[in-house]
Amino acid sequence: MSTTKTSKTRKIVAWIIAGLLTALYLYSASGKLFFHPEQMEQMNLGDWRIIIALGEIGSALLFLFPKTNRFGTLLLSSYMGGAIILHMTGGMSLIVPCVVLVLVWVVFYFRHPEFFNFK
Prior knowledge:
The protein is mostly helical. The chain is 79% helix and 0% strand. It has one domain. It has five helices and no strands. It is elongated and about 50 Å long.
């Protein structure tokens, strides 16, 4: 019985964190597309902002749903790796992209704990 409760709690927590992260990525993508395109220009990524924003939206939506969460996790991990590199080379704080990446993997672990069984 405790396994069922843990499993249900895990699913709920995973949905909440995944929903919040998806909202964060959608907000970030909308900023790239509509609200703050000049930030992408400052990072010399102005020509790529639409492609980056669409990739962010697609990855976030794949991440949100349990059936496509594996693909979304892979894509968002790659995306966040790029964000971390950009922050490193730009002298910006690494805290936010690192925390977001860890949360992506927490959701992945909650949804797919069997992935981490190395027996």
